[in-house]
Amino acid sequence: MRIICLNGWGGTLLDRLVPYVAAAAPDVLCLQEAVHSPEAGKDWLTYRDGDHVLPQRANFFRDVCQAQPDHLAVFCPAAQGVL
């Protein structure tokens, strides 16, 4: 069984991560810093937590799911700060 756990950095490395995940074909993929905002009108959102400001791919979860179309995807949100 292949298990991969990655920090997605909010999708900032999406162009590298999606091909990697598709090629690695993990049985289980765990991602931190993955945003899922299907109703967002923008491709990118801004995460703010005090002085900490990061760009976040609005549908990073969906984008990664498309790399593993035969897998069951589960989104378990836990967030702090304003998005």
Task: Give me a quick take on this structure.
By secondary structure, the chain is of the alpha+beta class. The chain contains 2 helices and 4 strands, in the order E-H-E-E-E-H. The model has no long low-confidence stretch (mean pLDDT 88).
- Strand residue content: 25-35%
* Number of strand segments: 4
Tell me roughly what share of residues is in helical segments.
10-25%
The domain tally reads 1
- Write the element-wise H/E pattern from the N-terminal end onward: EHEEEH
End-to-end Cα distance: 35 Å
Strand order of the largest sheet: 1-2
Quaternary structure type: single chain
Task: Describe what you observe in this structure.
The chain has 83 residues and is α+β, with helices and mostly antiparallel strands. The protein has one domain. Helix content is 20%, strand content 27%. The strands form two sheets. Strands 1-2 form a two-stranded parallel ribbon. It has a two-stranded antiparallel ribbon with strand order 3-4. Strand 1, helix 1 and strand 2 form a beta-alpha-beta unit. The protein is globular. The chain starts with a strand and ends in an 18-residue tail after the last helix.
